[in-house]
């Protein structure tokens, strides 16, 4: 990791590929020996993100319901931020909240799911729009002009994950895109193996010993071919049990894997309601230029 950077970060939003992206990052961190943390709400860091990062010595953070009010308090970091068409977020969240999303540590979802189960799909989508209001406010209030945050649309990432992940890790400064050399790559493979074995041991020992600090072999950059392999290992079809993008399983966390499905799910009433509440958001994010959609 760059000596002048204290933190690498992924900033995301609910139902915008956060599990998939975080799984890629988690394996990269495991290979490189970076201390990785995944948080999905402010309660997990007790409403003080900076203190949490410093206390836990986090080197790569995935914050998957990112609120810029916490992010702007940080200094000396570089990261990337992934957004998705809010209309697709509504559709994806509806099916996830109805069927597949865990309710562990999310008491609000228990009540919300009970309501969804009593409604038709059309009425459930209406309810889901309102349930996503806070998320959409955070997306609207994000600062999209920061030079140390690469802005990415989920649709582009899903369409060409290999290219976008390579560009992103190059932006983060941890991609080794030099010509492969046997000695360098062999050294990386040995270090990766050690870090993976140590992580297995650390998982068993962590929290059992007061003051226990895991030993790791630091690796400054990850080779291109290894990153591509990790992305391949996390391909949609592998996550979805062999289904290809577009083949739907409404009860799977990886339901369909395509962009623009809101066109298949929204009726005119959904469109009217969404425009009335959130059209400024889709315009700001560049998914529309006006309300004539």
**Residue share in helix:** 40-55%
Ranges where pLDDT stays below 50 over 5 or more residues in a row are: 203-214
CATH class: Alpha Beta
Structural class: alpha/beta
Number of helices: 14
CATH superfamily heading: P-loop containing nucleotide triphosphate hydrolases
- End-to-end distance, in Å? 44 Å
Read across the widest sheet, the strand sequence of neighbours is 2-3-1-4-5
- CATH architecture grouping: 3-Layer(aba) Sandwich
Mean pLDDT: 87
**Given the C-alpha coordinates, what overall shape results?**
globular
Output the CATH topology.
Rossmann fold
**Gyration radius over CA:** 20 Å
DSSP summary, beta strand count: 7
Order of helices and strands: EHEHEHEHHHHEHHEHEHHHH
Question: How many structural domains in the coordinates?
Answer: 1
Sketch the major β-sheet: 5 strands, parallel
Strand percentage: 5-15%
Outline of the structure:
The protein is an alpha/beta fold.
Give a verbal description of the structure.
With 293 residues, the chain is an alpha/beta fold. It has one domain (7-284): P-loop containing nucleotide triphosphate hydrolases (Rossmann fold, 3-Layer(aba) Sandwich), CATH 3.40.50. Helix content is 51%, strand content 10%. The strands form two sheets. A five-stranded parallel sheet has the order 2-3-1-4-5. Helix 7 packs parallel to helix 14 (268-284). The chain is globular and about 60 Å long. 32% of the residues are buried.
């Amino acid at each position: 990791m760059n000596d002048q950077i204290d933190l690498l970060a992924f900033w995301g939003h609910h139902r915008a590929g956060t599990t998939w992206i975080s799984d890629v990052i988690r394996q990269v961190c495991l290979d490189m020996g970076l201390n990785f943390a995944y948080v999905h709400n402010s309660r997990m860091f007790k409403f003080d993100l900076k203190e949490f990062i410093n206390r836990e010595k986090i080197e790569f953070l995935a914050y998957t319901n990112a609120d810029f009010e916490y992010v702007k308090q940080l200094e000396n970091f570089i990261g990337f931020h992934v957004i998705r068409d809010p209309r697709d977020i509504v559709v994806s969240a509806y099916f996830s909240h109805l069927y597949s999303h865990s309710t562990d540590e999310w008491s609000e979802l228990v009540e919300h799911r009970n309501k969804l189960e009593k409604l038709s799909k059309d009425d459930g989508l209406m309810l889901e729009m309102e349930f996503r209001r806070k998320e959409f406010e955070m997306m609207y209030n994000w600062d999209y002009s920061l030079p140390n945050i690469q802005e990415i649309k989920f649709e582009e990432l899903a369409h060409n994950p290999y290219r976008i992940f390579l560009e992103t890790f190059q932006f983060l400064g941890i991609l080794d895109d030099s010509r492969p050399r046997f000695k360098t790559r062999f050294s990386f493979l040995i270090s990766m193996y050690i870090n993976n074995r140590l992580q297995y041991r650390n998982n068993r020992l962590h929290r059992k010993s007061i003051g226990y600090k895991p030993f790791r072999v630091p690796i400054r950059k990850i080779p291109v071919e290894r990153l591509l392999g990790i992305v391949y290992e996390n391909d949609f079809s592998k996550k979805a049990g062999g289904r290809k993008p577009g083949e739907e399983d409404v009860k799977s966390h990886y339901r369909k894997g395509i962009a623009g499905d809101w066109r298949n799910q929204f009726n005119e009433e959904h469109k009217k309601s969404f425009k009335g509440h959130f059209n400024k958001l889709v315009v700001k994010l560049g998914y529309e230029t006006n309300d004539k959609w």
